[in-house]
Structure formats: C-alpha cells, structure tokens
What does this fold into?
Amino acid sequence: MKWTIGLVATAVAALGTVAPANAQMPAPRYVKRAVYVRIHWDRSFFEYWNNKGTSTAQMNTMLRGYFDAARADYLNNASLHNIDLFLLEDFDRATGPMSSYRDSAPQVGGDVRLIDAMRARLQTGNVNKTTPNGTTHLLGRTVNWVFVHGNFGGLGGKADSIRGLSTADANVFISTGTGDLTAGGRYFPLVEQRADIIQETLEHETGHLFGGEHGGRNELADCPGPGRYELMCSGFTPVQRRFGSANFQRVTNVMKGTLGRCNSAFTSANSCANAVSTECSKILDYTQIQPCIDSMVASTCQDICTTTQKTARVVVNSLPTYIGSGVVVAAGPAQ
It folds into this structure.
C-alpha cells in the first residue's frame, strides 16, 4: 500500500485457452469506464516549489504532466484494464481543500496524519451524467491525488486503502521529495525525487485503489522473475506497465463491482452463443466441438451489456479529455 522513499517499488487470460487453437473468438470488448481524478497539493509542496521560483501555473503544468503520463499508461492497455483517467479541474489548487495543510514534523507519523486530513477534507464518489432523454448514467468514480514535498513517515507515497476505488476515501499522496532520514548512521538530506520514480509511485499507488497488491503469497504470479517487475512490484525501476496475473484478477473484481464494466462485443448472450457455435463448428474433430462451445460460452458470453449500458458507453466516449465544472455531476472537494 506504499512505497519506501528512494525505493521504487499480465497476463490477461487468453480467450478460449482451453479450446482448440483454430476456434478463436474475438476478444470481448468492454465498456471503458472512467476514473475521474482531482489533483491537489499541500503547503509543503507549494512552499518548496514556490521558493524555487516556480509559479503556480508552472506547478499546475508539472502535475498535468504526471497526469498525462499516467493516463497514457492506463489507457488502451489491456493488462491495466484500459482504464480511462479524466482530470477534473473544477477548483483552484492554490486555494483548494488541501492547500492549507502543513505538517511541521512529517517524518514521524506524518503519513497517517496526512491520510486522516485527506479523509476529512476531500470527497470521492460517483460521477453521473443525465442524457437528453432523462436517463442518468454512472460514468465512473472520483479519486484524489495529493502531492506533497517531504518525508511523510519515510514513504514516497501511500494509498488510503487497497480496493479503495469503491469507498468514500479513494485517496493517495505522492511526494516530490526524498531523503531527510538517517540510514546506516548517515544522514540523507531532503532532495527532489527523480521524476520517473514520482511517476511510478503515482501509478503504483493508484493501482492500489484499483485493487492491486504487493504480492504476498502470490508473489511469483505478480512478479515473475528478473526483468518482469509489474506495476505493483517494488525495488526496480523502470517497472513494467502491467498487472501480473494475480493482480489482474484482483483489479477485475474491483472494476466489475465498482464501475460495472460489461461485454459489448455482442447484442445479447444468445447472439454470443450463436457466434461461439459457428466458430467451434469449424473444428474438424467433431468430438471437440461441444467442449469448445462449453468452454468458450463460459469465458466469452458473460456480462453482456444492456441497451442502457451501451448508451452509457456512447456518453463516455463523447466526453473530452479534461472535464470542467458543470459538465458532469461529481462528488466535489470539501471546502
């Protein structure tokens, strides 16, 4: 659920892997559900970068850059569930709900106090949109990213909780600083963290909100050997932009339960079953036709989108990258 300062901490199940290779159905398509992000900074972030001569506009540009990179990594990436991040810029960070927060001694328990403050000051929840016919669609959930600059409990970042996307406290913090600690009898002053590690920390902590874990008993499935350290593994940089097989399933459960993803490749479960039968009937060994149908219907014809859900997909795809005030109904930051 966290990265240690200075240390950076997919197998998608192939469609029909138990069926003969010559009876491959098209991979199920899923409605892309959005995750709406609000970016904040605390006083430690503002003071550090302001003292360096960085303007507020430049700070916003910096954070927009981290957002754009995270969005690119999660978007159209099957191993990261094709999650579409949208930036909600409907408040002023310089006067926002976290802008006045300042911890005078963050090294000792600062991460806990910061998370508590985020819970008290920020809101997360559903993002809805009402179409002209009066139907209200759930488009996604909101999350908060809070940027700080300091040693908060010895961590470079932390998520409020694993699987937090479906909760009221879907928050993470990320520090742009590293150091201000003693290790092996030597003191390391606070310095700027490398930008690539900040990026990995941000995407790693966000992965926790989506259900990703560090591994534990599934370490081999999550981190399968040298050179393949996935997004939720720690200790190597750069990491692969993927969820290992165990984390892929964990995130699948959160996405389906929270964002209601559904299979939009077919108009109905019956049309899907018919398509499966057509493909499997091409197998020359007739003894394999029914096993092919049974296995591929089970793996392919699940969670077929309803008409309402398909309409919601059109609504999602019509939204611009950056969402402004009044475009959607979203839980707003507490003031």
Q: What stands out?
A: Confidence is low (pLDDT under 50) at residues 5-21.
